[in-house]
């Protein structure tokens, strides 16, 4: 500290889906740092500890810890991450993140940093969509500010618009449009709403949090999205209209460099990364379906059974990242004999057709392997970006948050995805999933078209990153330059 460099402060919400794109952004700024800034990553102590061990050893990224007492906020001891909380407690973490105590700790951290830098405040603060109050604070301090969304423009526009408008409360039909998101002519079905939005009436805790905190973005100077302009224009134009005072720019796809993703992932499973890659090497090109529901989600026991039947029935090679079904401790042992069709694991091991991986797999490496053909995914935005930057088409099965709108976008606007399941409760049929796996992976008209569309997106993405001067790379540079100009 105090080495005369300008400092850039990054502050994600406490959840893996938020921390990962912020970490990717921090590493990107570090690598392309033409403005030579010191990078500070802000979070609570337990998250910082995990992050420290996931950084490359030669990284210069520094950490600022915000003290956090989970018990004070009605949370179990040592709970600082949305991913470790049961759903009914997640709201408390949100409330804690907007509490006076938390805000003043952040303010103190910024104050300390300023003192260490001989009275010079940070060059800028880049913070999370759920930490809107940091924009208001930065404005008061005269510090340049950006909101960075790890989510895509389209999905987040649906999410934002739903919270402010609650259009499903105004009609009695199952289907409804989003009049506030006029850039997209989309029709949603009630089953595509995350539980908290479906139940919202404007007076509930979630509505209150989102309406107040999301609207604080108005105090931000820039809104940055982990996406690409040509691919996600509709969603970005929504935010350009809503926030005419802010500069809205895509800076994606920020895909976390492989080794860091390895370190941050749970590598405690039995199948090692080397074994997975060796298995992939033994398979023909474009022959493997990769199945994963992300780092924090799982499906129901009956859905798992149907998916297992579909994978076997399809006759395709597959890697399936398995986690215990809903209702079972997510960290407990996976019981294939109980939750999958009888003899499933043995049969697929013997034939070499399927690989079950517990908890976590090196996703980016799998998707970029020549053997990868399609990705059955919950369509969290990190996964979407990781898949499409490799031109891999998707089978969508949204489970939470804006994932439902991502699937809608990918299926209807992009044409690189087909929906196979919706939510954790719905009934799915193995024949239906099997049929769709074949569509995507075989030489069907639909499959060819989906692969073509995924390839198109890959080209757009490549262009945005090409030679370090594509539109996305330029956006980050422009933002830091603009922040600098404010100071001198
Ligand atoms: C760290 O090492 C890697 C691999 O040698 C290199 O690509 C990267 O630029 C280095 N990062 C820093 C901050 O020096
Ligand atoms: C700020 O600095 C003081 C004095 O060094 C320290 O006690 C305090 O923990 C720091 N606060 C934060 C949030 O970093
Ligand atoms: C954000 O939400 C919390 C919890 O609902 C609330 O206490 C706070 O005042 C809200 N607004 C801002 C700008 O933090």
From TrEMBL:
Q: Which GO terms describe its molecular function?
A: UDP-glucosyltransferase activity
Q: What Enzyme Commission number does this protein have? A: 2.4.1.-
Query: What Gene3D superfamilies does UniProt report for this protein, alphabetically?
Result: Glycogen Phosphorylase B (3.40.50.2000)
Q: Which domain of life is it from?
A: Eukaryota
Keywords on record: Glycosyltransferase, Transferase
- Has UniProt tagged this entry with the keyword Transferase? yes
| Cross-referenced InterPro entries | UDP_glucos_trans (IPR002213), UDP_glycos_trans_CS (IPR035595)
Give the EC class as a word: transferase
Its pathway is: Secondary metabolite biosynthesis; terpenoid biosynthesis
Q: Any keyword Glycosyltransferase?
A: yes
The family classification in the record reads: Belongs to the UDP-glycosyltransferase family.
Q: What is this protein called?
A: Glycosyltransferase
State the organism named in the record.
Cucurbita maxima (Pumpkin)
